[in-house]
Amino acid sequence: MDFSPAGSGRMAVALAVLAFVAILVWRTMDPGRLQSLTWLLLGFFAFRVTLGWLRSR
């Protein structure tokens, strides 16, 4: 894996961390407005990570 700033290794680690946090949100937060906001923010960060990886290719 390439862990340079434009490497795919960093993207994989970032997406894995976001997935882990998403699982924690799903398991620990009560459904409602705050959980929806958290899902939205996690999706936004995942989208930014993916866009940054695509831009660096």
List keywords for this structure.
57 residues, mainly alpha, 2 helices, elongated
- Could you say which structural class the secondary elements and strand pairing correspond to? mainly alpha
Mean pLDDT: 89
Strand share of the residues?
Answer: under 5%
Q: What is the total number of structural domains?
A: 1
Helix count equals 2
Order of helices and strands: HH
Helix content: over 70%
Main β sheet profile: none
Which parts are unreliable, with pLDDT below 50 for 5 consecutive residues or more? Answer: none
Rg of Cα set: 13 Å
Report the strand count.
0
Q: What gap, in angstroms, lies between the N and C termini? A: 15 Å
| Cα shape | elongated
Architecture overview:
It is a single chain. By secondary structure, the protein is an all-alpha fold. Helices cover 79% and strands 0% of the residues. The chain has one domain. The chain has two helices and no strands. Helix 1 runs antiparallel to helix 2. It is elongated, with a radius of gyration of 13 Å. 0% of the residues are buried. The model has no long low-confidence stretch (mean pLDDT 89).
